[in-house]
């Protein structure tokens, strides 16, 4: 009996809060997931608050006599006059490899019914981005498996590449394809026991998306075997505006853990337009002054501090990276609206998707002229640079000449040649969704088109050529692809081998 | 139309006018409220409500409630009052309440500061930690 008393006493001593002092406030106003609380002296900005009934809030605006609190979760239990206590802790989410393969909400709580998250580490949701001294230039590629992107708009590890376009132009598809491509590369490297390959883990943050869309994306990722390398963070349209506002920051915290531990991660924010709308709602309810398009004045800082957290850090700091693929949905192709211009100026380039191209059958509907990657070319392999160096220029020339040729005027042989070549490149870049392509194969195909091997193939049969050549080269010339991958450059022996392979294939195929 | 922000601003100005030597003066407060209510200006009720809130907050900052499971002796009471006056650098009107539900220990609430060293609070911390 005495031991029991002792044990209870010890537990009581252990449970004693560090200080008996607590800052307590009273709810004065509550509505729309936002409460105004009187009192709460010495509360910190972004401190977690306990509103009773198991409800958590965050102190988002500190005023002279009041605190504006955003409520996470069910706010219907909170009543006017209720007590609010400061916890002395900033908002944190669980991080680590235990989250891979899981679907979680903004607070990192599981939504997939697979039991609790195996994680003993937490990271603050709001964190200052790595400083200049910690950073390193981008030098390693993110292979998206989408030929048009890997060849013309390459993305490097640690880059922020915006994906922008109207609704249903394939923005999410590009990101999902990139995630699937990483999963394939990761599992291939694992199977081959390649220790030099740095796996790229993926985080998909869904903000304000339809539940059905998120469920579909999860099933696509599961079918493609990508879930073991992916974290899905869902803040669907049915969630409160506050959790939609915090979701990208929670995702960034999960990504930063990989970066800090010398690993590479890719984070997709789908999408930041809805994120800005959620933040606008929170700000308006908090009665903050509104500016252009009723967005609050700090909406630029909202996205800049989020995207600055994507970085490539140096060897001294673990040599990890966090690559960000934010998505922005435009209205009627207007990239000069407030949020699109903000995010364009923060990111290191953009992939612009056009509705017209999409309906003309170009998939992915990437507008080559308007898409750029400001830093990714430094990460492109030499082999890819050799075959893709001139591609952007050639395609731009093709678009111009094709528009001119519509008038039916007579064309000289050189111009006609350029148009024919352009048509074949465009056809080659057409790629069905969820089928990423190995970069070695992309190099081989681009080399073939650049060296005139496809000039004799009718445009309608380009896809057939591509499919058969892929089968041929993966089945009987696997060493050639492995060589391109290993050498990462097209030297003379590889070029000779490529020539031989193409000649042999063309005699068989024709 | 008087906005809530404007009402709060006006109330803060009236509150400053009601102070004498750092304390709200009863006579001034009475005359401010009666003048305000008979002034006929729009939004006077909102201003008055904000003014009362400021007064309440000021009073709350000068008052403390000490809850204890058992009645405290005069010496402990004096110690607590002196301690509060020292901490807040002003006189604090302290009321002592016996609350057996605390089981043991005391709980002091002064404005938005709560010093809770009762058995009840420790048991609650134990319950939430488990």
Describe the structure using short key phrases:
heterodimer, A: 510 residues, alpha/beta, 6-stranded antiparallel barrel, 16 helices, B: 130 residues, alpha+beta, two-stranded antiparallel sheet, 5 helices, 6 strands
Order of helices and strands of chain B: HEEHHEHEEEH
Largest interface: A-B, 16 and 17 residues
For the biggest sheet of chain A, the summary is: 8 strands, mixed
Query: Which quaternary structure do these chains form?
Result: heterodimer
Q: How far apart are the first and last residues' alpha carbons of chain A, in Å?
A: 92 Å
Mean pLDDT of chain B: 88
Radius of gyration of chain B: 20 Å
Radius of gyration of chain A: 27 Å
Strand order, sheet with most strands of chain A: 8-14-13-15-16-12-17-18
Fraction of helical residues of chain B:
40-55%
Descriptive notes:
By secondary structure, chain A is an alpha/beta fold. Chain A has helices at residues 2-15, 147-152, 171-192, 211-223, 241-260, 272-285, 299-307, 338-346, 355-360, 382-388, 391-405, 413-429, 439-450, 462-476, 478-487, 492-509; strands at 21-31, 34-39, 47-50, 56-62, 66-72, 83-90, 92-95, 103-104, 121-124, 141-142, 155-156, 162-165, 200-207, 230-235, 264-270, 321-329, 349-353, 372-373. Chain A has an eight-stranded mixed β-sheet with strand order 8-14-13-15-16-12-17-18, with helices on both faces. In chain A, strands 1-2-5-4-3-6 form a six-stranded antiparallel β-barrel. In chain A, helix 7 (299-307) runs parallel beside helix 8 (338-346) and helix 14 (462-476) packs across helix 15 (478-487). In chain B, strand 3 (63-68), helix 4 and strand 4 (93-98) form a beta-alpha-beta unit. The longest helix of chain B has 18 residues, at 44-61. Chain B starts with a helix and ends with a helix. The chains are: A alpha/beta (510), B alpha+beta (130). The A-B interface holds A 11-12, 15-17, 20-25, 38-41, 65 and B 53-54, 57, 109, 111-117, 121-123, 125-126, 129.
């Amino acid at each position: 009996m005495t031991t029991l008393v002792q044990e209870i006493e010890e537990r009581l001593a252990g449970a004693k809060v560090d200080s008996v002092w607590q800052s307590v406030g009273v709810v004065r106003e509550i509505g729309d997931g936002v409460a105004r609380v009187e009192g709460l002296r010495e509360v910190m900005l972004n401190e977690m608050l306990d509103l009773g009934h198991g409800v958590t809030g965050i102190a988002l605006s500190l005023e002279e006599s009041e605190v504006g609190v955003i409520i996470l979760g069910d706010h219907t239990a909170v009543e006017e006059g209720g007590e609010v206590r400061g916890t002395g802790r900033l908002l944190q989410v669980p991080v680590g490899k235990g989250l891979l393969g899981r679907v979680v909400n903004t607070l990192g709580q599981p939504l997939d019914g697979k039991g609790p998250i195996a994680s003993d580490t937490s990271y603050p949701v709001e964190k200052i981005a790595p400083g200049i001294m910690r950073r390193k230039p981008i030098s390693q590629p993110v292979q998206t498996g989408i030929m048009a992107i890997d060849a013309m708009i390459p993305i490097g590890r640690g880059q922020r590449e915006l994906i922008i376009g109207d609704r249903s132009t394939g923005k999410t598809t590009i990101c999902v394809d990139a995630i699937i491509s990483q999963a394939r590369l990761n599992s291939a490297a694992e199977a081959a026991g390649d220790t030099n390959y740095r796996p790229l883990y993926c985080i998909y943050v869904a903000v304000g998306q339809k539940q059905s869309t998120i469920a579909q994306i999860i099933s696509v990722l599961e079918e493609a075997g990508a879930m073991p390398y992916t974290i899905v963070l869902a803040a669907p349209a049915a969630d409160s505006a506050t959790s939609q506002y915090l979701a990208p920051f929670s995702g960034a915290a999960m990504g930063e853990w990989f970066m800090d531990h010398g690993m590479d991660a890719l984070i997709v924010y789908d999408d930041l337009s809805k994120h800005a709308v959620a933040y606008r709602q929170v700000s308006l309810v908090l009665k903050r002054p509104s500016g252009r398009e009723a967005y609050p004045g700090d909406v630029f800082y909202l996205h800049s501090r989020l995207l600055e957290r994507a970085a490539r850090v140096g060897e001294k700091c673990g040599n990890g990276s966090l690559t960000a693929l934010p998505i922005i949905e435009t209205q009627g192709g207007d990239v000069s609206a407030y949020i699109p211009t903000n995010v364009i100026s923060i990111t290191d380039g953009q992939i612009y998707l056009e509705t017209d191209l999409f309906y003309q059958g170009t998939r992915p509907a990437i507008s080559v002229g308007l898409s750029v990657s400001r830093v990714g070319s430094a990460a492109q392999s030499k082999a890819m640079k050799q075959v893709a160096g001139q591609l952007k220029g050639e395609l731009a020339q093709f678009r111009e000449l094709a528009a001119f040729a519509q008038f039916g005027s007579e064309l000289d042989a050189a111009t006609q040649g350029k148009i024919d070549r352009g048509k074949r490149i465009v056809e080659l870049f057409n790629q069905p969704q969820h089928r990423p392509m190995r970069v070695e194969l992309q190099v081989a195909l681009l080399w073939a088109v650049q060296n005139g091997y496809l000039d004799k193939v009718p445009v309608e049969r380009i896809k057939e050529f591509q499919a058969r050549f892929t089968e041929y080269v993966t089945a009987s010339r696997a060493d050639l692809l492995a060589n391109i991958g290993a050498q990462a450059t097209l030297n003379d022996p590889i070029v000779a081998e490529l020539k031989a392979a193409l000649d042999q294939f063309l005699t068989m195929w024709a | 139309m008087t906005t809530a922000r404007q009402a709060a601003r006006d109330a803060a100005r009236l509150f400053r006018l009601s102070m004498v030597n750092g304390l709200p003066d009863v006579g001034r407060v009475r005359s401010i409220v009666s003048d305000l209510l008979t002034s006929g200006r729009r939004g006077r009720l909102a201003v008055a409500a904000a003014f009362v809130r400021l007064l309440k907050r000021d009073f709350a900052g000068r008052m403390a409630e000490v809850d204890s499971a058992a009645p405290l002796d005069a010496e402990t009471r004096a110690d607590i009052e002196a301690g509060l006056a020292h901490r807040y650098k002003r006189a604090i009107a302290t009321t002592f309440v016996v609350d057996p539900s605390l089981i043991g220990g005391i709980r002091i609430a002064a404005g938005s500061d709560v010093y809770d060293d009762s058995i009840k609070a420790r048991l609650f911390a134990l319950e939430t930690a488990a």
